[in-house]
Amino acid sequence: MEQFSLDTPQEGFIDITGKVRSLVRQSRITAGLCQIFVPHTTAGVTVNENADPDVAADMLAALAQMVPKLAYRHREGNSPAHVKSSLVGCSITVPVLDNNLRLGTWQGIYFCEFDGPRRRCVWVQLIGG
Fold it and tell me: Which residues form a coiled coil (predicted)?
């Protein structure tokens, strides 16, 4: 398993495609799977369009509408971040072929920060040969 860290903004989508792609290429796996896992309860990971930055902004706006800041019971005051993390999810799996991530033309991998700024970890497990 590989891992890397990143410093995040208060909230946002951070394109980590290049970092994950680099780990896949270094691994020399010709065919298999790449599992990306975020070990945090107020962050997530997703695949979405990486050609237009407005898509990430739209995703954040939609999540803010779905999960408004209300009087939640969790005392830390970051319940919306926990809910958004559960909605987005903490892991994705991407196929690997010929030592490359098999993403669609417009797809990228995004770390989703909902309770920053923080120093976060991303775990990458490569399966195959």
Answer: none
Block residue for tokens 């010709």: 30
pLDDT in tens, 25-56: 999 899 999 999 999 999 999 999 999 999 99
Determine the straight-line distance between the first and last CA of the chain, rounded to whole angstroms: 14
Would you kindly state where each structural domain of the chain is located, as residue ranges?
A: 2-128
Q: Which amino acid is at 84?
A: K
What's this model's pTM, rounded to 2 decimal places?
0.94
Q: Which two tokens stand for residue 77?
A: 């005051």
Residue with tokens 């898509």: 55
Residues 41/88, Cβ–Cβ less than 8 Å: no
Per-residue model confidence as pLDDT tens digits over 71-109? 788 888 889 999 999 999 999 999 999 999 999 999 999
CATH 3.50.50.60 is right for the domain spanning 2-128? no
Query: What distance in Å separates the CA atoms of residue 110 and residue 78, rounded to the nearest whole number?
Result: 21
Q: Are 36 and 46 in contact (CB under 8 A)?
A: no
